[in-house]
Amino acid sequence: MGLGKDKGSSRINRYEHQVTAIGFDNLDKLAEVLDVPVAYLLADDAAMADAILALSEADESQRDVLATLIPALIQDPTLLSRLVKLLQLPKREQSKALKTLTDKA
């Protein structure tokens, strides 16, 4: 962020311990230095931060699909649990299960 090691370390420590709030200008700089979206730094918890980071790594068409898919999975807990179970299978079995799923579609 251009602050130098000592000053930067002290400032980040104050941010982490919520002694000082980070300003929007510095938030942009920090996100740029860390190569993450600003929303990642503002996430409520680690899971949300991970989801934001994953979405930021998707291309625009993938983000559009995911933006439709996420609410659908939230509205259908059965579908979500089936998908989670599928993802817990060994890779070889995942491939077979996904093929079966796509063949039915």
TrEMBL record:
Residues 10-41 form the HTH cro/C1-type domain. This is HTH cro/C1-type domain-containing protein. InterPro entries: Cro/C1-type_HTH, Lambda_DNA-bd_dom_sf.
